[in-house]
UniProtKB/TrEMBL annotation:
One of its GO terms (cellular component) is cell cortex. It is found in: Cytoplasm, Cytoskeleton. Its main location: cytoplasm. Belongs to the profilin family. The lineage of its organism: Eukaryota, Rhodophyta, Florideophyceae, Rhodymeniophycidae, Gracilariales. This is Profilin.
Amino acid sequence: MASWQTYVDDQLMAAGCMYAAIYGHDGSKWASSPGFDISNEECEVLVEALVNSNLGKISGSGFTIATQKYTFTRGEVDDEEGNPSYAQGRCKEEGKSAQGVIIYATTQAFVIGVHDPQYADGASFGSVNTDAGRVADYLMELGF
C-alpha cells in the first residue's frame, strides 16, 4: 500500500485542514494528522450513512468525528457520475461553529478534513473541500 501519510500531510494539511485523516471503512487508520483519531464506532456510522446510502442516519442527529460532534449540513450519495459520496458538517460545540468537516467515502476508505478559519492560514472551507475531493478521486482511481 502507498504511503497515505504523504497525502494527508502534503495535500490535506497543506490545503488548510486543522486535522485530516484517511481511514478504512473497517476503522483502520491509513494516515492522520497527530492526535486525530477516529473510533470504530464513528467509522460504522459513516459506513451506514455514506457507503450504505443512508444519510438519514446522520441528517437528524448529526455525527461525531474524533469525539467532536457535528451537525450534518450537506451530503450526497449514489452519484450517477461515479463521484465519491460525501457529507459535510458544522461543529456543535459553542464557540466552534466556524469549524467544519468534510468526509468523502471511496470504495474502501474515508478521506476526512476538518477546517477552522482560525487555523487555516487564509484557506477557505471550499478549498479544503476541493482538495479532499481530489484525494478521494485519486484513491478511487487506484481502486481504493
